TrEMBL record:
InterPro entries the UniProt entry points to: Fun_TF (IPR021858)
Keywords of the record: Nucleus
Protein name listed in UniProt: Zn(II)2Cys6 transcription factor
Bias (Polar residues): 1-12
Source organism (scientific name): Aspergillus chevalieri (Eurotium chevalieri)
Source lineage: Eukaryota, Fungi, Dikarya, Ascomycota, Pezizomycotina
């Protein structure tokens, strides 16, 4: 189904607004569409009038959730291009409104947000079922983007343990269309958005990734050669994915773990290569300073994508140190041997989080912060990391308190939200 009636929107009775006058942002008219408007009109996708409420939700999505999805996309596909395309495509519009309304509800800013969210989500799913039959561009590409947005809608308040079923559908779609990290355009942007959540799911559940990182089409030899923050982020995510996948394989095959010294060393060397390459460039260096009343040294990056990259780097170090198969010491001695290293990386993660980076970094810092908390024995540090996790959910509406609860149970603490 290529075109739906203009009446399928958020259900608001607000007056219609001309797309050219939509109050989406001061620079909305400059947003580049994925295809020229004339091409979309030839395909029967002329811009539809927006209600003022529709425009408000598109603007909210552009400013918040869309930015999170664009963490490693300097072209801002979801926060800018997709919002422009939503004026042409009722499927994208319904998915965006659903996601924005739910996020506003979860942060306590919109009392009836879930009613609007559910209505538009149901509309989006109905339209998406029809769209899945399309193989022609741009309809298939828009359908994949809508699938990614709907997946984000589900994940806003779901724990990482519950993401499996939501990711199944997205990856089924992506594999049919052979989407990977170098597909280009909307599909590449969507791939990296779901890849981040796929890695989280793998780490929490110790499950193998649906798409092997070797098939992500990422160059891990010439790391840092392009000098682009988005590329660096995709590269460190791919390395983290390889580590998560290796852990899942070792958990499923215990004897293999005993023979995994060479595999572990290869991953360690790859991580060292990323660190050396990025550090040599200098453009991802942070500003460090002490703040009164703050426990950790604050580590501030000028861009959220850089902050997120280094948090993933430190998380990868923690995971590799924790599973080093070459350790021949007993458990207590082995822990004491690496405790200082683990806590160093944990404090780096918390120092970055303490700087309150962009929301795109904060929603992707839940797992790094959780593993940082696992490394602490000091009560003050434990309290600090738990508060950092809780603030993510309170400020942004993205599920994070479940990971704080996991830490409380691990520490033997009682805490009621």
């Amino acid at each position: 189904m290529r075109c739906q009636s203009a009446g399928q929107n958020s259900g608001s009775g607000a007056d219609a607004v001309s797309p050219s006058l939509s109050p989406l942002s001061p620079g909305f008219s400059e947003w580049p569409p994925a295809l020229p408007s004339q091409s979309l009109q030839l395909l029967g996708m002329s811009p539809k009038p927006l209600t003022s409420e529709d425009a408000r939700f598109l603007r909210l999505f552009s400013a918040e959730v869309g930015q999170w999805m664009d963490l490693s996309d300097l072209s801002q596909t979801f926060s800018r291009k997709i919002c422009r395309l939503a004026m042409h495509d009722p499927l994208l519009k319904a998915a965006i409104i659903a996601c924005a309304a739910k996020q506003q509800y979860l942060t306590g800013r919109l009392f009836d947000g879930m009613l609007i969210a559910r209505k538009n989500y149901n509309t989006a799913i109905s339209l998406l079922i029809d769209r899945l039959q399309e193989s022609e561009q741009p309809f298939a590409g828009f359908g994949f983007a809508a699938t990614v947005i709907c997946s984000c809608y589900e994940m806003l308040d779901a724990t990482g343990r519950d993401w499996q079923k939501h990711l199944d559908g997205v990856f089924s779609f992506s594999q049919v269309r052979s989407v990977n990290g170098s597909s280009g355009g909307i599909e590449q942007a969507g791939f990296w958005s779901i890849a981040r959540q796929e890695v989280v799911c793998s780490i929490i559940n110790k499950s193998r990734l649906r798409l092997d990182p070797d098939l992500w089409a990422v160059d891990l030899v010439r790391i840092g050669q392009e000098g682009c923050e988005d590329l660096m982020n995709n590269q460190i995510l791919t390395i983290l994915a390889k580590v998560a996948n290796a852990i899942a394989h070792w958990e499923a095959d215990k004897p293999r773990k005993l023979r995994a010294v060479d595999e572990w060393k290869s991953l360690w060397d790859l991580l060292n290569h990323w660190e050396r390459s990025v550090t040599a460039k200098g453009f991802m260096d942070p500003v460090l300073y002490k703040e009164d009343g703050q426990l950790f040294t604050t580590i501030w990056f000028t861009r959220g994508v850089c902050a997120s990259s280094w948090q993933m780097f430190h998380l990868t170090r923690i995971l590799l140190l924790s599973i080093d198969p070459s350790q021949t010491l007993d458990c207590v001695a082995a822990f004491r041997n690496i405790e200082g290293k683990l806590q160093y990386h944990a404090r780096q993660i918390c120092g970055i989080a303490q700087s309150k980076p962009e929301g795109s970094c904060r929603v992707n810092s839940v797992q790094p912060l959780h593993y940082a908390g696992c490394c602490f024995s000091n009560t003050d540090e434990r309290n600090a990391v738990a508060l950092l996790l809780e603030s993510i959910e309170e400020d942004l509406g993205w599920a994070a308190k479940y990971r704080a609860n996991d830490l409380y149970r691990q520490w033997g603490w009682r805490r009621d939200f």
